[in-house]
Specification:
10 strands, Nucleotidyltransferase, domain 5, single chain, 5-stranded mixed β-sheet, alpha/beta, globular, tRNA threonylcarbamoyladenosine biosynthesis protein TsaB, 2 domains, T6A_TsaB
Length: 234
């Protein structure tokens, strides 16, 4: 089955076309442009590079977050629109899980970190076990200082990835902690496609009508609105 995958959880705009065990095309850019400007051209380009038409696509996959609220909404809206219009299944994939999946390193803890604003990061921990990638610590919002403290206390070697690793530049890291190379720091649609294909092979898919982003925390707009309208909480 051919899958069109979309990744817009961070500054990266990434679109891929893949099938079981084979990546046909991928367009990934971390340019200073909005996803509303880049996503549709990237979808068109990825499909043209793969030499596929809309009739060839068997499913649409999308990164669900956590991450940029605006980026997630744009990516999911596009994915849902395509899946509905093309009449194909849609599969949502955890952004943090897809980032961890790029590091098949048995015996190590893979810790993806995505900017949660105000010096905080969305953090989770994964390990490769007998059954493949396993989540060992669920996603939380953690301060940057706490990230290093918690990782340093882990009994295994730790690989950090994600857009927040730039915050550790010039800082002394615990002896068991390494930062992924810049080529593997940010999420990619190719990995989203791979995880979606795994789910599809098990007969799993999501409902195009009620699939929602995974935000974890509320937006600043929601918090500000509640502060200005305390009577609404009554």
């Amino acid at each position: 089955m051919l899958v069109l995958a979309i990744e817009t959880a961070t500054i990266v705009s990434s679109v891929a076309v893949a099938e079981d065990g084979r990546l046909l095309s991928e367009v990934t850019a971390a340019a200073k442009l909005t996803h509303s400007e880049t996503l549709q051209p990237h979808i068109k380009q990825a499909m043209e590079m793969a030499r596929v038409k809309r009739e060839d696509i068997g499913a649409v996959a999308v990164s669900l977050g956590p991450g940029s609220f605006t980026g997630l909404r744009i990516g999911l809206a596009a994915a849902k629109g395509l899946a509905y219009a093309w009449g194909v299944p849609i599969v949502g994939v955890s952004t943090l899980e897809s980032m961890a999946a790029d590091f098949p390193v048995p015996g190590a803890c893979i810790v993806p970190l995505i900017d949660a604003q105000k010096g905080n990061a969305y953090m989770a921990c994964y390990e490769y076990g007998k059954n493949g990638l396993e989540e060992v610590e669920k996603v939380e919002v953690v301060s940057i200082d706490e990230v290093l403290s918690r990782c340093g206390a882990m009994s295994k070697n730790v690989i950090l990835c994600g857009d927040m690793v730039k915050k550790f530049a010039g800082r002394e890291l615990p002896s068991n902690v390494v930062i992924a190379p810049f080529t593997h720091v940010l999420p990619r649609a190719a990995t989203v496609a791979s995880l979606a294909l795994e789910r599809l092979s098990k007969g799993e898919e999501d409902n195009v009508m009620n699939l929602e982003p995974v935000y974890i925390r509320r937006s600043e707009a929601e918090v500000l609105w509640e502060k200005r309208h305390p009577e609404a909480e009554l």
